[in-house]
Amino acid sequence: MTMKIFESIPKLRAGLNNAGRLVLVPTMGNLHDGHISLMQHARDHGDTVLVSIFVNRLQFRPGEDFEKYPRTFVADCERLAAANVDYLFFPDEKEMYPTPQKYFVEPPAELINILEGAFRPGHFRGVATVVQKLFNIVQPQVAIFGKKDYQQMLVLSNMARDLALPIEIVAADTVRAADGLALSSRNGFLSPQERAEAPRLYRSLETIRRAIQAGNHDFARLETEAMTELRAHGWIPDYIAVREKTGLQLPPAHDSGLVILGAALLGSTRLIDNLEV
Ligand code: PAF
To answer: pLDDT tens, 195-215?
Structure first.
């Protein structure tokens, strides 16, 4: 079947026939191999795969990269068709926000005022609101989110659980380049020198993971050492943090379900990554 593109909500609703178990993969476009792996997960979890591309103004603050977020529709369509995606929902801003959005999904403060949320106030409220809206429009049985954005994945899976949404949320593993760098749309902003330096973020998380696995539970010290190492190579770290996996709170010393998260600026590009222990 060739991929069918819907730009309006009524056309999508009228056109989704006999979809069976429908899997939604929400994206903002500018698709890379990491996204394409989400499409493969989607295929494994249902009968019909629907991808949305919508650059959501609500999750950007003034001064963030909403305007310069790469819009690569033609290349994205080619990649999606090659990945055997069945449907693409590609609404414009008027379709998604015909009037200014006044109702919002407000995730709990303890999950969104920390880590990414502390540096991007309002971001997760914008993400949760657009994803709930996409859920209402598409009415999927399954939705796929990448663990690369670990905090986002938790905000959305907790939202589905807390609001009893009839949707299974699937968290897909991060896809990495051969040198360890997590695939991300932002990697395209890196100069060749920065691209060569970029895997250091992953390597510093890996160093912490190995230390924890070897029995070192002095998390604060491990975090400080990693940030010092990054600074010595020209990075400006926002945080390196060892947290418990289910709510990203500070873990007791011997907790086993841990995730190590990091965000740092390399030149003018902010990279994030994480590793589960
Ligand atoms: O991860 C993203 O691309 C976006 O935050 C999402 C989930 C598509 C919501 O706009």
So the answer is: 999 999 999 999 999 999 999
Distance from C-alpha of 144 to C-alpha of 121, rounded to nearest angstrom: 24
The residue contributing the CA closest to ligand 1 atom 1 is 27
Residue closest via CA to ligand 1's atom 5 equals: 127
Per-residue pLDDT reduced to its tens digit, 8-52? 999 999 999 899 999 999 999 999 999 999 999 999 999 999 999
CB 182 within 8 Å of CB 264? no
Ligand 1, pocket residues at CB < 6 Å:
26-28, 56, 59, 127, 130-131, 149, 152
Topology of 185-276 in CATH?
Answer: Pantoate--beta-alanine Ligase; Chain: A,domain 2 (3.30.1300)
**H or E element in which residue 210 lies:** helix 200-213
pTM of structure: 0.96
Catalytic residue among 32, 35, 45, 254: 35
